[in-house]
Amino acid sequence: MRVNYELELPSRRSALRTALLLGGALVAGVVCAEGVAMAQGRNKASECGAKEDEWIPLFDGKSLEGWHATPRVYGPTYPGGPTFTRDREIVRESLLYPAQWHVEDGMIVGRQDPDHPGFGGFLLTDRHFMNFELKIEVNNDWPTDSGILLRKADRDWSGIQVLLDHRPSGGIGGYFGNGIASFHAIKFVLDRKPDGSGLYVLDPKLSLESVTPEKAALLDYFASEETFLKTWKWQDWNEFTIKSVGKYPQITTHINEVLISKIDLGKLQWPHYDKEAMFGLLGYSGSIALEIHDNVGTGALAAARWGVGAKCRWRNIRLREL
Q1: DSSP category for residue 48
Q2: Please, what is the average pLDDT of the chain?
Q3: Is the domain 55-321 a CATH 2.60.120.560 member?
């Protein structure tokens, strides 16, 4: 059973009654916890019979049950702001040829449409979450421009992105504000070593995207270059642990159990960013989403975002509500 979390609270109660009649204890618990949290601004799963410290598998290793896909379509650059402009034909094709997702050998595998490459997409959890700790293992090809989005909505690209830009001039473990002023919280960017043996920190002067003190200042913490390079496993699985807490989320990201970054969206300062507008757009909770970026357009950065035939891979996805 899939619950529509855009319903008003009376409909949520109807959904809960249906879930109980069907014996859907897990779904019922989600509806109850979600309704309480959305109405009261808190996350009290225990009041509905769920254990707050219990790790919940979000991926069963066999199917995409509990997930749904959407095309990667843009929207306003910030709440009430101008819409991110794209050529009409690109917009049309992005709806016709979105990214593809399937399960293979216990992994979620994502790729661009091989017959019509260039367009991206999202894979979202049906369930919505507010305060949580998420663990997810990733093993993405080079080059791929991906990310893990929090409080993601179906309607467009809006959400809080933990960056997984495994590509030239990419940032990994930083943050980006999709539809919330495009804040770009990074300290340094990466590239592949000429011999293909791993990553190195790229000279900011050579980066395809700007690396500025203002971007680094958005972060409460970011690991040193040496720590990151020592932590990251090249052409192997890397485990992200992402903790998000609060109305204006305070987010902490570990990779392979090493602290990589912290950000506080309650005190962030960036042009056109407003925490109340962010909350008004995203609310207390939303889906967790996996991203495949598009790479249509001109310029070196567009070409660098996704390699021909490249894939992203995800496994062992689990979460506990806090």
Answers
A1: G
A2: 88
A3: yes
